[in-house]
Amino acid sequence: MEELIITKGDLSASKPCEISSQPISEYEGRMRVHATEKFDVAVYIAAVSFYLNQADMQEAHRARGALVLYIDTEVADKIFKAAGLQVPYDEDDESMMATGGTLCQMIADALKDGLAAAGFASMLVSPPCVYKNNIPEGVAFSKEQKEKQELSFYFLRHKAVAIDWTLASIPKK
Fold this sequence. Notes:
By secondary structure, the protein is of the alpha+beta class. It has a single domain, classed as CheC-like (Chemotaxis protein chec), CATH 3.40.1550. Helices cover about 25% and strands about 40% of the residues. The chain is built from four helices and ten strands. The chain has helices at about 1-10, 55-60, 75-80, 95-115; strands at about 15-25, 25, 30-35, 45-50, 65-70, 125, 130, 135-140, 145-155, 160-165. Strand 9 and strand 10 (about 160-165) form a beta hairpin. The longest helix is centred in the middle third of the chain and has 25 residues, at about 95-115.
């Protein structure tokens, strides 16, 4: 995330990324997603799930992992611009959420490509789902996982972006 923002845009991190492990809160087999756990302001949320193949994605709904992106609405336009994305009218939540989905997809694709380059099986990434403040139905993830990694990124002197991600073991190629 920092590399994407810093190399493409002119934003620099206000302080180093913070990483912590958190227990996964689940409801009806899906990972709960509530922005109030990370931010005390409104946020745009985009989420994707990772799958080993088409059948796991479409029929079995057997995710291997998930990535959830949270962006402070007040600075989302600056984050999107720094990432090289075209910023829509920033007062329109729907178009801003869609742009958040594009950024989430970029991050997920980079993670997927990095894992494939390291010799792991290629994965499929679900289309991003986008929301504001929470995802009521949660996000598909691997039931094998009990913890997620939470990454907090600081730009413009405050926490501007957070990412939750979890990934079960994936086979080598």
